[in-house]
Amino acid sequence: MTETVVPSVPVAQPTREPGRLWHTFCDMNTVRKGPEFTVARAEGVWLWDEAGDRYLDGTASLWYCNVGHGRPEIAEAVHRQMLTLDAYTVYGDFANAPAVRLSERLAAHAPVSDPRVILTCGGGESIDTAAKLARRYHAVSGAPDKVHLISRTGGYHGLNGFGTSVIGMERFRTGFGPLVEDVSVVPHDSAAALEAEILRVGPGRVAAFFAEPVIGAGGVYAPPQGYFAEVSRICQRYGVLFIVDSVICGFARLGDWFGIERFGARPDMIVFAKGVSSGYLPLGGVVVSGRVAEPFWYQDDHPFLHGTTYAGHPTACAAAMANLDILEREDLFTVSLEVERQLDGALRSLADHPLVSQVRSGTGVMAAVELTEEALAERGITTAEVFAEARMRGVILRAVPTALLISPPLIITWEQIDHLVSTLAGALDAVAARH
Ligand SMILES: Cc1ncc(COP(=O)(O)O)c(C=O)c1O
């Protein structure tokens, strides 16, 4: 998730005045007036600022640090790889051993038929890769009019060109002039709405449908029962490629490799990033089904002329391999299901808080605590204020316009979950008392 909300109240741990770093996703005119929150070091679920104060990382940074911070074996793998082959392109016929091994490993676990793996440097880049590949696939398969891309309300797909165009949150699309054309958004919880939209646009014009298994940045919304099975059938019926965006949900956050397995669907492509390397180095990619790969792999004159300089970066791939070793060795796939239950149980205690209208949790190690309309609209309370209050009390959460989001590292203990939730409760009480 990438919704950085600037706190509207000063935090108690100013570390230094802003310098020349232009922070991402924020109003620098606000940030420059206050102290920067400088993270100095991290270990496990904990962060320390430059003053030495400790915070619980309730969001695994931006939903990515699944194995927790400060894992020596990832650092050692990176060090070893740097001394062997630091970096080299995978353009043309160039390959490197870590990129080949990582692709094999991901393909072995992906719920995709006969998979191939394209590597990138992150989620948004992977979304653009998948969108271009979908359009190109139809073009080389004799259906050049199939260009329309459909996504869901609340769906977040990064902020590159195609991602900004298909995002399901209007506020991220405006102000940039014309975006990619031939896109539309359907309600996130209705397979019938997807079918109606395909019929409205015309099945001969629709290239692909994008969906996160559980919507993350858009506010943590799990799919209705049977949704993805129905969506898969609809996509198949109309020759629409089904592209799952597992950037948040993959790598054990939902208890499996790609976050879609528990819903029983087999997509045409899966976009991944974040947890594949737990963010130790930037890495993402797209798992592509053999059917979609076929014209590019087995027919002449269909090169896929797309890629980026650092795709298949051997050191990033080595970090990912060490990260996946930890996920498997510590069986974080099973552990996360228990963490999911514990977090869900603990958060239930907030459902009755007077500022809270809804707690959404229980599908994956991710949750949203939604504030009431009365608190937001009438009392003038902001989620940014709750965020700032919680951070002042030593817990990092993520604020989106109407909710606080929670997505800790998967190694979080029961005591730490309890600390996170009781700190959030205290922050809500303090904010309520101020208004
Ligand atoms: C579901 C989803 N897709 C794509 C992205 C974009 O990834 P990146 O920020 O690495 O470009 C994100 C980022 O939060 C995401 O949550």
UniProtKB/TrEMBL annotation:
Coiled-coil intervals, chain numbering: none
Keyword Transferase in record: yes
InterPro entries: Aminotrans_3, PyrdxlP-dep_Trfase, PyrdxlP-dep_Trfase_major, PyrdxlP-dep_Trfase_small
The keyword Transferase belongs to this UniProt entry's keyword annotation: yes
Highest taxon of source: Bacteria
Cofactor(s) the record lists: pyridoxal 5'-phosphate
GO molecular function: pyridoxal phosphate binding; transaminase activity
Keyword tags: Aminotransferase, Pyridoxal phosphate, Transferase
Membership in a protein family: Belongs to the class-III pyridoxal-phosphate-dependent aminotransferase family.
This protein's name: Adenosylmethionine-8-amino-7-oxononanoate aminotransferase
